[in-house]
Structures are given as structure tokens and as C-alpha cells.
Amino acid sequence: MSDSEQHKEKMKSVQAKQRAKVAEAQDPGRGLVLVHTGKGKGKSSSAFGVVIRALGWKQKVGVVQFIKGKWITGEKRFFDQLGDVTWHTMGEGFTWDTQDRDRDIAAAQAAFAKGAQMMQSGDYDLIVLDEINIALRYEYLDVNEVIDTLKGRDDRTGVILTGRDAKPELMEYADLVTEMTEVKHPFQAGIKAQRGVDF
Tens of pLDDT along 34-72? Predict the structure, then answer.
């Protein structure tokens, strides 16, 4: 048997296995919970890629940003121009900038209250809780309350939670968990964040 024929036979087998898996899979009848975490770059970027995908299907999307504050980002500018995303930036900035735990807690709780309202409304197909894992890491929010709120969300609504150091309980509850691993980062070589790549 030639290399080409061997390859064709191998791919036929792979195809049959894949089709069998797809045939067994079922629609859960609800939006999924995705967690994007890890020390590597790309957690929020990946979430906004999913936002674009949802918008491509004419789905209704909302974003609640924790932590980032008034930091101007390319994704916010883009979605503002598009006009199809409900966007709430509610953080006060990075924790090392505010240096005020009570203020950070109040901001995180206000952001989560907004996110909870959106999740329960039944108005959204997808909601991104951007950098909520940071708020959980510093215990500005209670992980059990967050999970209970996710459980009580409208069936229509999928949720993406981003930020490093996701709580184990949250990862256990989620349908999908992706951990970004940093292999190399320009900041470690003294290169400052670049517009259009980093923000």
C-alpha cells in the first residue's frame, strides 16, 4: 500500500470515530459556562473572539469588565463603533493602582450585581465577565455566590469568565476551562505593551 493510500485509510478511520462522537453528543438546552484562566496572555482576547462569533449569528451579547477601569482598549473602541454589545466597564483599575481594598470590593460587587442582573434577565445569549477571576482571587467576591448566580442564570445565556487564578470550585462547575500558558512574553524582555496587540 502506498503512503497516499495508507494516509487515506487512516483519515477514514479518524473520520468515522469523529462522526460517532458527534452523533452521540447532545445539546444541553442551555448556554454554557466557559472559564479562560492561566498566566499566559490571551484570556480576554479569546473571550472577545467568541463575542465576534456570537454576533455573527445575530446573538445578543453583554460584557461586564471588572478591574480594568477607565483603561482604553481596542476591543471597547471596536464594539462601541459596532454598537451591538451592551458594555459595562465597572472596575476602578488594577489593584496595585487603587491601593484601596474597600473601594475595590465595592467596585467588584457593583460589577457582579450588574452581571447577575444581565444573566437573569433572559435578554442575552452570551455575557463576558472580564477579569472576574481577579476579583475572586482577592476575595472581593464569594465564589459560592458567583456559582449560585451562574446556576440561576436564564437557560438562554452562556457566560465566559476570564482572568488568571480561577478558583477550583468555579473550574469544577464550568463546562469548559482553558488555561493559557505563558511560554514567552515581550514584557519580560523590557518591551512595553503595544496598542492593537496588548490593549
Answer: 999 999 999 999 999 999 999 999 999 999 999 766 778
Furthest C-alpha separation in the chain: 71
Query: Which domains, ranges and CATH numbers included, belong to the chain?
Result: 31-189 (3.40.50.300)
DSSP state of 155: T
| Per-residue pLDDT reduced to its tens digit, 156-188 | 999 999 999 999 999 999 999 999 999 988 777
Grid cell listed for 107:
467596585
Q: How far apart are CA 74 and CA 165, in angstroms?
A: 24
Residue 144: Cβ within 10 Å count: 11
Please give, one letter per residue, the 3-state secondary structure of 30-69.
Answer: CCCEEEEECCCCCHHHHHHHHHHHHHHCCCCEEEEECCCC
